[in-house]
Write a structure and sequence with these properties.
OB fold (Dihydrolipoamide Acetyltransferase, E2P), 5-stranded mixed beta barrel, 6 helices, 32% helix, globular
Length: 184
C-alpha cells in the first residue's frame, strides 16, 4: 500500500520545480482567489481529541488546553511564513479565523513531538482541516522534510500543486520558504 507514496511525492517535487516563478506584489497575491480543490479529507478522524485553543502563535503553531494540560501544538505537514515574512501575519490571522468559527475548539490528531517539545498534530477546526486550507489559500507550504509524521502528506502535496498552478499566495512567486528564511 505504501508503494504509491514515493512516486506521488517525487511527482509533486518535480512538478513544483518546473513551475515558473515570476514576481508578483503582495497586494496582487492577497486579492487572488485560491484554486478550487477537491476535498479529500472528509470529517475529523475518530481518534482526534478536542482541545480548547488558548492562543494562535502564528500560521502553524497554537497553544491549546485539554483538561489541566496546556501544550504548544505545531501543525503537521506544513510550514507557514514566519510572522515577519510577507503573508506571515495573514497566515496566523486565517488560522485564528478558522478556530474562531469553530468556537475556539480544535480536534487534534497528534502524530509526534518535535525537538522543542511541541506536539505535532493534524488540526481540525470544526469540519475544516486547517493545514489543507492554509496550503490551498497559499498561506503555507508543504513541509516535505517532516512528512514522515504526516498522515495527510499526499493530500497536502496535491493541494500545494493546485495552489502553485493557480499562483496564489506564497506560490505567486518571490516568496522565500520559511525554512530558508530562518537560516538567514
Amino acid at each position: 500500500m505504501k508503494g504509491w507514496i514515493l512516486p506521488l511525492v517525487v511527482a509533486g517535487i518535480v512538478g513544483a520545480w518546473w513551475l515558473p516563478r515570476a514576481g508578483t506584489s503582495n497586494e496582487e497575491v492577497i486579492l487572488r482567489q485560491p484554486p478550487v480543490s477537491h476535498h479529500l479529507r472528509t470529517g475529523v478522524p475518530a481518534e482526534a481529541e478536542t482541545w480548547q485553543v488558548v492562543r494562535v502563535s502564528d500560521g502553524d503553531t497554537i497553544v491549546a488546553r485539554r483538561g489541566g494540560q496546556e501544550e504548544r501544538i505545531r501543525s503537521a505537514c506544513i510550514d507557514a511564513p514566519e510572522t515577519d515574512q510577507p503573508l506571515g501575519r495573514e497566515s496566523g490571522q486565517r488560522l485564528q479565523q478558522m478556530i474562531d468559527q469553530a468556537g475556539g475548539q480544535v480536534q487534534l490528531l497528534v502524530t509526534d513531538t518535535d525537538r522543542f517539545g511541541r506536539l505535532i498534530a493534524e488540526i481540525y477546526a470544526g469540519d475544516q482541516f486547517t493545514q489543507e486550507v492554509l496550503v490551498r489559500e497559499g498561506l503555507a507550504w508543504s513541509y516535505r522534510q517532516y512528512h514522515y509524521n504526516c498522515p495527510s502528506a499526499a493530500l497536502i502535496n496535491q493541494v500545494e500543486a493546485e495552489a502553485k498552478a493557480a499562483r496564489v499566495g506564497v506560490f505567486a512567486g518571490g516568496h522565500m520558504e520559511p525554512w530558508e528564511w530562518r537560516r538567514r
